[in-house]
Design goal:
With 93 residues, the protein is mainly beta. 11% of the residues lie in helices and 56% in strands. A hairpin with a 2-residue loop joins strand 7 and strand 8.
């Protein structure tokens, strides 16, 4: 799950960035080289991520919930657009 969240977090950024995260397995605060700051909060089978970029003023969020072999993702992108996807056995639509 940590790998999935890291991959999703990096996919929100236009250029490659390297993140530095501090905290515990359940709550982390991260910053990266593109000016993004975000928090990751894990509660049971659900992960919440909220991010922002002080340079651009953009904000975004994502919630991911795993049930069995399926993971459901939804959130709001930097432009305020809602999105969602689901993955079954690692294959996402």
């Amino acid at each position: 799950m940590k790998t999935l969240i890291a991959a999703l977090a990096l996919s929100l950024i236009a250029a490659p960035a390297f993140a530095l995260c501090i905290g515990s397995d359940t709550l982390q605060s991260c910053t990266d080289t593109s000016g993004n700051s975000y928090t990751i909060n894990r509660m049971g089978n659900t992960t919440f991520m909220n991010g922002s970029n002080a340079e651009t003023g953009s904000q975004w969020n994502q919630t991911s919930t795993t049930v069995g072999n399926s993971t459901f993702h939804n959130g709001t992108d930097k432009d305020g657009n809602s999105w969602s996807t689901s993955c079954i056995n690692g294959i996402c639509n």
